[in-house]
Amino acid sequence: MGIGRSLAHECARRKMNLAIVALPGIELEKTAAEISEKYDVEVRYFGIDLTANDAPQKVLNWCHEQNIKVSFLINNAGIAGAKSFEESSPGYSDVRILLNIRALVLLTSFFLPELKKCRGAKILNLGSISGYYAIPYKSVYAASKAFVVSFSKSLASELRNSGIQVSVVCPNGVTSNTTSAARISTHKFLGKLVSIDTEKLARFTLDKVEKGKEVIIPLVANRILLFVTRFVPEKLLINMSGKEFRKELKYQEL
Questions:
Q1: What is the CATH number of the domain that holds 182?
Q2: Looking at the domain assignment, is residue 115 inside a domain?
């Protein structure tokens, strides 16, 4: 189960009505129907590729047409992967920039006026612990998540007196599909120690959001990792990361 799907299920379990935006297809329709039936909440869905230039504006337009009032914006869409930058196509890098950064920023910008109309409005951005490190073979992905972490913290400060809460969740490995599980398995015991499944991630994240937490780091192991690595020389840390993440290259994404 993907992160977005698990977050949708968890929101519905907490009796939130949903407007799901994802790539078009039968999977989106099935997920919407399944959630609506299981939790007795209203679920509407819109299929669109968020990397398209006008996609964020179309999402806003669709919400207006459907008379959907958004009080909780979850920017979950993103794409990971491991690949040598030198061997990456421009399209490989571009899709990560468009989806992980551009779509998130524009959706947030477009929906801010709507959120300000709702008491207790919230924004949740999906970051990554990768956003705290420079990671060889994940150069564009890690940089995109560093942007998400920085953007979220900055926005949280700007909006502190607006009534809108901004949170960012930064998991490490997430077993969201067979490819991610395979990549995590290449790190053996360390991979198991710092990874989490999507259902646990969704529950933990929403619990923390409800408590007003701005930066959310799932698992004690990851919080310890972040603390300890502050004392490791950056060059050594990058070299260690390169050796570790080179293992993932056989599980490349386009």
A1: 3.40.50.720
A2: yes
- Rounded (5°) CA angle 8-12-13: 115
Relative orientation angle of helices 3-13 and 198-210, to the nearest 10 degrees: 50
Task: Let me know if residue 148 belongs to a domain.
Answer: yes
Split at pLDDT 50, 70, 90, the class of 112 is very high
In tens, the pLDDT along 33-72 reads: 999 999 999 999 999 999 999 999 999 999 999 999 999 9
Q: Which whole-number Å values give the CA distances from 37 to 12, 83, 168, in the listed order?
A: 10, 40, 30
Tokens of 172: 């490490």
If you average pLDDT over residues 165-189, what whole number do you get?
74
* Both tokens assigned to 173: 């490995």
| Strands 122-126 and 72-75, bridge-based pairing | parallel
- Tell me the residue type at 58: K
Residue 51, φ and ψ in degrees, nearest 5: -80, -10
What total of structural domains would you count in the chain? 1
Both tokens assigned to 153: 């913290």
CA–CA separation, 79 and 87 (whole Å): 18
Placement of tokens 């929101």 in the chain:
11
Rounded Cα distance, 201 and 217, in Å: 10
